[in-house]
From TrEMBL, chain A:
Any Pfam family hit: SBP_bac_8
Coarse class of the protein's main subcellular location: membrane
Keywords: Cell membrane, Lipoprotein, Membrane, Signal, Sugar transport, Transport
The protein's name: Maltodextrin-binding protein
InterPro entries assigned to the protein according to its UniProt record, in alphabetical order: Maltose/Cyclodextrin-bd, SBP
Residues of the signal peptide: 1-20
Amino acid sequence: MKKATWLSMILLTAMIFILAACGPDREETGADEADVSEGEEPEKPESLKVWVNDDDNQKEFYEEVTEEFTEETGISVEIEHHPMDEQLDKVSLDGPSGNGPDLFYQPHDMIGEANLQGLVSPIQADEEQLSIYEDSAIEAMSYEGELYGVPDVTETYALLYNKELVEEAPETISDLEEIAEELTDASNEEYGFLMEAANFYYTYPFMTAEGGYVFNQDEDGTYDSSDIGLANEGAVEGAEMIQSWYQNDYIPKGINDDILNGLFEDGKVGAVINGTWAVKDYVKAIGSENLGVAPLPTTDDGDPLNSFSGVKGWLVSNYSEDKYWASQLGLHITNTENAKKYHEASGQIPAVTEVVESDVLQENEHFNGFAEQTQYAEPMPNIPEMAQVWEPMGDAHEYIADGNDPEEVLNEAVEEIQAEIEMQAK
Amino acid sequence: MQKDPREPRPQVKKHNVNVATLLGLIPGIGQFYNRRIIKGSIMLVLATAFVLTFAQFLNIGYWGLFTLGTMQGVDDSRTLLIQGILSLFLTVVAIGFYAACVIDARRDAVKIQNGWKIPSVRTALSDWFDNAFPYLLVTPGLILLVFVVVFPLLFMVLLAFTNYDRYNAPPGNLLEWVGFQNFMDIVNVPIWRDTFVSVFSWTLTWTFGATTLQIALALLLAIIVNDKRIKFKRTIRTVFILPWAVPAFVTIMIFSALFNDNFGAINRDILEPLLGFGLPWMSDPFWAKTAIIMIQVWLGFPFVYALFTGVLQSISSDWYEAADVDGGSKWQKFRYITLPHVLFATAPLLIMQYSFNFNNFNIIYLFNEGGPAVRGQEAGGTDILISWVYDLTFQNSMYSMAAVVSIIMGMMVAIFAFFQFRRSRSFKEEGQV
């Protein structure tokens, strides 16, 4: 009996190895279909699937614009709602099995990673169609010289101030420090100027004011991840300035967005650095007439500070069978006319130049300041290596707040970023 | 196997056990030889169906498991891995079925040789049903267990031997087997080693510190409240259970705000007026660890307290009276009556408390996401293994490394639980204590 079992086991194992050597039959053809030559439209599909961010406010807008698209082209559009930060994972799982979308919505800094995973395909559009968008937004959506997304909205932060405490927006960093000096009374929880000073997203303007940079960028906009400028002289200078704010008690340790918003809404803070997303609550708390929005102060030499900007936009799935028409749908959703409507529906700043320069935005005093800052904003690097930057830099800012030597701390952070990039890239 | 000597059966001697076994190598044929036609046909049909249905699936499954795909962008290593695992399961089932067929053919042949009469289909079926009934009941649970527990576990274990991270993530790229490389990296690469050692030692300190303290506090309170002289027992007990009643994540987030260095009530309203200075709860690893242990004690003691209170009620007062007669001191009564009673009855649940805290992701993550940062180390000051794994997977997309740490973690818990459960009384059979 035992012998028989063993025999059968051996037979089966042998079979397995024979099987393992076979593999599936298939033709070794390239997966990509031929690109469409210019001026020629590929055949229209019956329908396209688009994944939009899971936000009820925008539901009607999307239904309206996709209906227009259907009327124009005869292609029906199926809308599915998925939270933006889950879409990439879902595309990676649903794409290969054919259930993925043709078009989906992502912030531009995910493009590098999406590209690594082979999830996105370049946008198929002509010069004229792309000319309506802001250059910086197009740049943000480009990766290694190719455009991977149709820009939809840009967001950045600016200086928001309480007009009851600060009459006029500070123009230079020195002015800002003066306000801090004048108004700060930490024992009463009153502050002249507050920001999340341990969050690299917000400290970027100060780290780069004197010449710091994240990754060096060549003329085409390609990033060189081996050249990190976060511990150079300029960056150290910026870090020292931030440290001096802690040391002078202008900014308390342990500040986070909850505390910052709470204090500002209580009318205890002169000015804060925050994004468009904060405006609604601030207006509710201190009144529309009391809230001022200005671009970030300049350096004492008058150079504007570069804030980080994020661009959200439409990406074409690499698994889509109708990449051309998916691109067209993306372009349609964000065209000048629809961008205006979208701004009205959501209050965000579209990436279309005409709309940014239009009266609608220019005359809205709360968006005015953001729109102005957008000119100086630099898109967050969209290469996958950027993901390794946030944590070490955030940690470095904590050490700076604790009073460690900024140069030492920044050098350590850069070493850590480099080590992590190397560790993953091997 | 009753032999009836009055009826000689000439065909019996002709029946050859070895022939039956050999024929049994093809499912069903051995049974035909034994003249169990229906049983044989069922086996033959099942075997053929299996081969026809699954041959191609197994083929691709094993091919994928060995190669993890060959065409970049077309093959999806994750899917192939899953198919491979399913193929393994199917193979195990098939081998089991196959072995059962062969063994059955041989066993029946032996019986026939010994003069056993082949039962009618009806008796055979009812015999089979009687024997198999308990197994039939267990089977759905087993199958569920295989797919819900074993399958994901196997997937994770296999991932630990691949190079799955951000830079070669499927579907765009193919994974590769890297053997024990990831395990060696944990030991050999300095930043990994330093982080692992410090996170691991803190995890152990945290597990033993927080859990032991919460049990000790619960025991103390339970014994005091159980004292005859205490009045308003019900009210006191209700109050003690309260921390359990509020969802833990709400409590932790409130505590996180309370402990804030500059704005938290603990520093500003308690320590500063009393002592004149505050403590760096959030920015100094030592104080962050202290705070987090205190919070866990607060969150965890009500459950143990409720447990102990219940057990204390069940200790007969005769024991204490007998001790009084013998002149036992308070300490002796506690040491030799109360403590053994309470601990033996609750040991398995207390062990659960330890393994729960070992993997207590909620409190670490909600309190300060494993912070504060520690210079020269990947993980934060209060990161335990599980929160570090979360960080590796969801912040840094280092899936294979996260799998490695998970395996180490799983083994720790398993070994710990295994030995402790075996030692505790609850798992010994009656009379073996």
